[in-house]
Design a protein that fits this description.
The complex is a heterodimer of chains A (about 110) and B (about 120). With about 110 residues, chain A is mainly beta. Chain A is built from no helices and eleven strands. Chain A is globular, with a radius of gyration of 14 Å. The termini of chain A are far apart. Chain B has about 120 residues and is mainly β. The chains are: A mainly beta (about 110), B mainly beta (about 120).
């Protein structure tokens, strides 16, 4: 079993719809949670980050963490064709200098005009 | 924000030759850099953690002698794929840790390696 599970998709939605993404994890020591967006043949870029449980909102993006269920979510409101990309969740026990991130497998999202 | 430059973006080499990929942090010093490999439609697989001035830490199953990592300065890490074979063809991505930011893991734009 992978440490972080993420549905690969693809997830196809019409423009303007809400995109709902999620990851589950097995390591209860994870405390720092991130969402990255990756366009084809590009490096990932950080979208959202949260610490421990709770919600965080930034523009059209909302990140949620439920540590009791070991479940994190990312919601994208008013989706645009430019949101079409692969979304990767990542998490870490610590953010100390040498600490690595553990990634989910990524979910491909396609927003159709 | 923090910027990581990775070169080349694309390289084609003959089987048996070596290829060097550079990763530079442009506006910050990175004591730690990470090297990933990504196959089509798959996630990032961490290959090694590169520490400035010391030996890299490789993940299990990654051949140290095949994937040479050098982190000689606070702004530059290199990955050399030695004696490349077609199965080494992949997308390689580096990430540098910007200690000025709590969530400062910045990624390069990746290198598409094709071994023919």
């Amino acid at each position: 079993q992978k440490e972080v599970e993420q549905d690969p998709g693809p997830l196809s939605v019409p423009e303007g719809a809400i995109v709902s993404l999620n990851c589950t994890y097995s390591n209860s020591a994870f405390q720092y949670f991130m969402w990255y967006r990756q366009y084809s043949r590009k490096g990932p870029e950080l979208l959202m980050y949260t610490y421990s449980s709770g919600n965080k909102e930034d523009g059209r993006f909302t990140a949620q963490v439920d540590k009791s269920s070991k479940y994190i979510s990312l919601f994208i409101r008013d989706s645009q064709p430019s949101d079409s990309a692969t979304y990767l969740c990542a998490m870490s026990v610590s953010l100390a200098a040498g600490n690595k991130l553990t990634f989910g497998g990524g979910t491909r999202v396609l927003v159709k005009p | 924000g923090a910027v990581v430059s990775q070169h080349p973006s694309r390289v084609i080499c003959k089987s048996g030759t070596s290829v060097k990929i550079e990763c530079r942090s442009l506006d910050f010093q990175a004591t730690t850099m990470f090297w990933y490999r990504q196959f089509p439609k798959q996630s990032l697989m961490l290959m090694a953690t590169s520490n400035e001035g010391s030996k890299a830490t490789y993940e299990q199953g990654v051949e140290k002698d095949k994937f040479l990592i050098n982190h000689a300065s606070l702004t530059l890490s290199t990955l050399t794929v030695t004696s490349a074979h077609p199965e080494d063809s992949s997308f390689y991505i580096c990430s540098a840790r910007d200690s000025r930011q709590l969530y400062g893991y910045t990624f390069g734009s990746g290198t598409r390696l094709t071994v023919v």
